[in-house]
Amino acid sequence: MTTLADAEQAVREPDEPARTGGSSDPVVTAVRLRPPERRGMHARFDSTDPNPGWDVARHPKVARLLRNRRFQFMLILPNQIVFWAVILLGLAGTVVPGLNFGTAITWYLWFCLVFVMMVVVGRAWCAMCPFGGFGEWVQRQAFWKRTQKALGLGLKLPEPVARYGFLMSVVSFLVLTWIEETFNIAGPGAPHATSWMVVGIVSSALVFFLAFERRTFCRYVCPLSALIGTVGAMGSVAGFRTRDREVCLSCETKDCMRGSSSGYGCPWYTWPGSADSNLACGLCSECYKSCPSDNIGLFLQKPMTSVVAPTRRRFDIAWAVAVLWGLVVFQQVNATNVYASADSWLNRNLHMRYPDPLDYVGIIAAVALVMGGIAWLVQRALGRRDLEFATPGRNYLDRTSRFRAFFVPLMYGLIPVVGADYFARQLPKFFSHVPRLVPAVGAWFGAGSTHSPLYSYHLLETTGIVVAQVAVIGLGTLGAVFASWRIAGRDLASISTRPGVARVTAVGLALACGVVAGVLYIAMHAAP
Amino acid sequence: MTIAPAPELLVPTDASTSVTVLSDRCAGCQECVVRCPTEALTIDSSRWVVVADESLCVGCRQCVRTCPFSAITVEGPSLVTERTAVRTVEPERLEGDDSETRRGFTTWEDALAEASRCLSCPDPTCVRGCPTHNDIPSFIRALSARDLDEAHRVLRRTTVLPDVCSRVCDQAVQCEGSCTWSLAGGAPVAIGALERFITEHAPVPPPARAEEPAGLDVAVVGSGPAGIAAAWELAEAGARVVVYEKADRPGGLLDWGIPDFTLPSAVADRPWAQLQAAGVELRCEHEVTSEDIEGLLGTNDAVVLAYGAGMPVTPRVPGVELEGVEDASRFLDRAHRALLAGTVLPELDASAEGVRAGGAVVLVLGAGNTAMDVARSVRRFGGQAICIDWMDPRFAPVRPDELDEARSEGVDVRFNSTLLRLEGDGVRVRSAVLARTRQESAARRPEVLESETSVVEVDRVVLAMGYRIDPSVAPGLPAVPFVKTVEEYPDRRWIGSGILANPAPTFARSLPVGRLALARESARTNAAFARGDRLWIAGDALVGPSTVVEAMAQGRRAARSILAHRPSRARSGDGAGPRPVEPKRVVVVVDSLGGKTRSAGEAISRVLEGTGASVSVLRIQEATAPVLADADLVVLGTWTEGLVVANVGPSRAVRAFLDALPPLHGMRAAVFCTYGFSPKGTTAIMRNALEAHGAEVVAEAAFGARDLARRAEEFGEQVKSRLWSGSASRTSGGVRAVAR
C-alpha cells in the first residue's frame, strides 16, 4: 500500500516542481534528512530475521483479529476476572489451601501454564497479564480505545536504573521468591497470603503505571519479566517484526514507536524495525495497528531461534540467566535434608527464620558467581590475547571485555536448561494436585470438599513425577547442548585460541548443568 | 534529496557536552541520526545502537527531542556563540517622528556572524514554526554565501512579503521560538533580522509573470496580505486578476493598521506597486457586498474572499457611545494619514485650543499589538496614552519587546485593570471608571474586583480590544470562521521533528510553539478548500483577526488550490459547457477490516493509474486535510459494518471521516463498499455525506465476496470512463454500480 509520504510526493502540483523541489508542502521541501545508516544492516539482522512465509498476520482472519482494538482486552479480561476472584476468595473463601480456588488455580495450574506459554510462545502471558493489563487500563483510562490523555506522571525510568536493563526484574523476582518462601505462599499456605501477594503485585504495578510511561513496570520491574524474556527466547513466536526493514528505516512517522490514531506507541520500547529476538515483544499488537505502511507482521520462528540467532547479546540477560539458575538451584537444594540442617543451624544462631537470607542470597550468589568464574577460567584458558576489545560505550550494557565476550554466549547457551529446570519445579504441584481445582471450584458454590475423590487424586505418583522432571531436564539439556554448540561455534570460535575446545567446553557446561539439575530432582524425590 | 552539509560553527572551545545513549532503550531507529545537525550521531552497526561523537556535539538537544523512546540525554551547555544584537532606536523627539524604531543588521559582518549560528538542521523546526514555512536554513545558507538573489529565490517559494514579515512578525513565537537553540533553552538565530537584511540589501523581486496566459479570470476581494499573496501567485501563473478594495488605497491592514514606525509606508506600498506593474488590476473604493459575489462568480472563474476582519469589538459598558470614543482602525488610519502629511491630530496636540497641558489623555482599551500601535501613535502626536488590559501581565498576549518600546516611549500600560464605565458631560467623554482585576492562571477568566475602583480623567478613548469578521459580506459559508485547531493525533512528522517537545521555550514566553504552529497549519490547509462553487476564502476573513504572515500564507494556499483545480465558470452550474478537467491527483481512501476493501481499492487504483494520473491508496487515518486539499478525485471505500440487517452502514472510522470532512466544493468522488451479507444503504450514506460537503459523486458500487478483484476493476473502468476523455465505457456486468 502506498504510504502517506508517497502520497504527498504524488500530489505535487504539476506547475510547481521546479520551484518547490517537487512537493506542494513547503515543509516537505525544506526537510533534508540524512539518509539512515544501512551499513552492517544485513550482518546484524539476516540471522534473526524470520522467514517471510511464517508471517501469520498475512492471513486475513488473523489480520482482522490483530487490527481489532479489543483483541488484547479480550485476552486480559478472563485473567482479570480469575485474579480478582483469587484475591476475593483468598480473603473470604475457605482457609483450606487445597480447596480454596485462589490458591488452587494459582499454584497448581497457573504457574505451570505460564511456563508452558513462555516455552512455546514467549511473552504470551505478558499479552494477557491481568496485573499489567489493569495498570494499563488505568493509565490509558480506557479498556481498549486509543486515548491521548494518559493518567499519571508519565515519567521515564531514570537512566541510572534503566541502564541495567532486566536486572531490576531479576532482583524483584528474588525478593518475591524470598517472600513467597518465607510465608510459604506457594506451598500453598494460607489462602489469604496468596491474596495479599497478588494485591501487592497489582498495587505495585499500578503505582508504576501511574508514575511512569508505557509499560515501564513490565519492561523493567515485573518479577516475571526477566524470566519470561530469557526462557521465552526458546519460544516459537518471533513476535511483531518488520516485513521490510527498508520501509521501516525510511518511515517518516515511526508510528509504531510514537503511536497513531490507530494504536499506541510500543509499550515495551521495542522497534519492530530492529527487533532481533522476542525478548521485549509483549505481543500487544499496538505496532501492528499503528503502522501506516502495513509493514509489520506477526512471525513464527523455529524453537530456540531467539536463543541462538541474535548477534547482539546482552550482558544483563547473561547475568539474569546465571542468577535465575542460582535461584532454581536454591529451590532444589532447599528441598534436601542437608539444606534443612544447615538452614536450621543458621537460623538458630542468627535468630532468623526460614529461609535464612544469608543462605538464600548466599547460594544464589555462589551459583551465579561459579558460572561467572567458569566463564572467567574459560576465557583465561582459551581467549585470544591478540584481540583488543574496544569499549563502544561507557555504561553497563555497552562495555566490552574478554570476560564478557565469553560469559555472555556461555550463559545464553544455558537458557534451555534453566527454563526446563523452572518448568520441572512446577510439575509436582501440577501432577499431584491439579485435580483439586474441580472441588475448589465446587467449594465456591458450597459443593466441593476435601472428601471429594478428586481432592486426593494425583495425575502422577512420586516416581512418575521424578521421571517427568528428569525427562524435562533431559530435553532442556539437549536444547542447551544444541544452543551452546551453535552459539559457541559462532561467538566463541573466533575469539578462542582453540575453537573446538571452546565449543566442547560450552557444551560441557550445558551438560553439567543438566546433570546437576537432574540429580537434584532425583534427590528431591518430587518434593513440591 | 539534498542532504544538508554539516555546518562549520563558530563555537566556544572551552566547553563540552556529554551525550548518553541508553542502549537498553535505543532501538536504532535513527530518528536522531538523520536529524543531528552536526553529524555527531551515528549507528554502531554491530549492536545497532546509536553512538555519539561528543567532540562534534554542540548541545542543541534535537536528538533528545526526537527520540521516540527517550533513550538519549545530553548534558552540558549549548555550544553556540552569543546572538548578535539587533538595534532598536529611540527617537530623540517623539512628536511627529515616524521613523522605524526597530532596525535590522546594518553590516555584513553582523549578518554573517548571526548566520553562522544557524545549524542548518536537516529537519528544521524553525520552518515548521514559520506560518508560511519559509525554508529558513536555505536562505540563511544563501546569505552566508553572500548570494542574495538565491536567498530571494528561496524566500519566493513561500512568501511574497519577506520585507513586511521580517518587520511585523512576532518571531519569538514563530520561527525563532521554534529554532532548535530556542527549544534547547538558548537564544535562537535572529531569523527575522536576517530575512530583513536580505530585503534591505537586495530589493524583493517583482512577480515573474507567466509568458502564456492561464485562461483563468479570478476576482480577489480585499487587498490586504491575503489578497496580495493570492493575486501574486495567480498573476505569476498567468491568470487575469482583478482586486476589489473598499478603501481608497490598497494594502488593507498593511496600510491603515500598522504605523510607520513599525512598517514604513515605502515597505508597505511595495507589493502593490509591483503587482500593478505586473498587470494586476486594482479597483479601490469598490466595496463588495454579499449581493455582488454572485455577479463576480458570473464573470470570473474563481473568487477569493480576503476582505479581512474589520469589525471592531466594542465593550458593553455605559458611556461607550459618548463623543470622543472611537475604534482603533479609524484612529490608526487618521494617525497614519496625518503623519504622512506631516500634520497633527488637533484633538491630541497640547498646543491646540481646549487640549490640556501635557497633551490630551487617551485611554486605550487593550494591550495587544493594535493597542500598542495606538498608544505609541498617540505619543507621537503629543498626547498621553494609558493602555489597560484586564489580564495579568504574566498571561497577557502582548509582545515583550513591544511593551518595552511602548513604556520607554512614555505609554502607561496597566494590567489587571478593566473599564467599568465611561462618564461624560452628556456629550463628550470626560472620565473613565476603572476596576482592578485578578487572574490566577492563564486558563482562568480574570475576576473583576468592583470594590477596588479608580477614576481616570480622559479626553479620548480608543477601542483596541480586537476585531471580528463582518458576517454580512459572505453569509452562510461553511466552516467560517474557521477555528484553528490541533488535531488529537497530529502529524507524527511534526512530533518527530521535536517541535512539540516540552518544555516550551522561555524565549517564546514559554508558549507551546509547536502547538501554535500546528494550529496555524490547520488554517493554512483549510484555505485550500473551496467554500462554495468556485469560491475560496483566506486570511482574517477565514479565521478572524490573525497575523500578516498567516493571512499571506492562506492567500497563497487558496491561490495554489485554484491553480491546481482550474475551476471554470463555463462548466459550472447545471453541467452544461465543456467537460471538467481530468483528475491529475487521485486518492483512494479505504477502511479495510480483513483486507477485502483494501484489495478492491488497490484494484481500482491500478485501473486509474492507467490514465496517467497519480494515484495513492491510503488508509482512512492517513486521509488528512492536507492530502484531500491536493486531490482532484477521492475514491472512498469501506467495509460494511452492522449486524447482518441492523445498523448496516459504513464503518465507524468512515463515518467519523465523513463527519469531519472539510468543504469539498469542486471535488469529484466515487464511493464503494465491500459486504458479506448485504450492503443496504452503505454507499448512499457515503454519497449523501460527500454531497452535503459539496463533492460531486460520480459513481458508487457495492462488492460482495465473489469476484471482488474483477468487479473492482470494472468499477475503476466506470469511474475512468466518466472522468477521463477517450476512456471507453464498459458495461458493468455484475457490478452493482449506480450510474449517477
Q: Can you characterise this structure?
A:
The complex is a heterodimer of chains A (528) and B (740). The longest helix of chain A has 31 residues. Chain A has 26 helices and two strands. Chain A is globular. Helices cover 60% and strands 2% of the residues of chain A. Chain A has 528 residues and is mainly α. Chain A has a two-stranded antiparallel ribbon. Chain A folds into three domains: 32 residues, no CATH class; 162 residues, no CATH class; 210 residues, no CATH class. Chain B is of the alpha/beta class and 740 residues long. Chain B has five domains: 58 residues, 2-Layer Sandwich (Alpha-Beta Plaits), CATH 3.30.70.20; 94 residues, Alpha-helical ferredoxin (Fumarate Reductase Iron-sulfur Protein, Chain B, domain 2, Orthogonal Bundle), CATH 1.10.1060.10; 143 residues, FAD/NAD(P)-binding domain; 144 residues, FAD/NAD(P)-binding domain, CATH 3.50.50.60; 155 residues, Flavodoxin domain (Rossmann fold, 3-Layer(aba) Sandwich). Chain B has 24 helices and 26 strands. In chain B, strands 20, 21, 22, 23, 24, 25 and 26 form a seven-stranded mixed beta sheet that branches. In chain B, strand 5, helix 9 and strand 6 form a beta-alpha-beta unit. In chain B, helix 13 runs parallel beside helix 14. Chain B is globular, with a radius of gyration of 29 Å. The interface between A and B is large, with 76 and 82 residues.
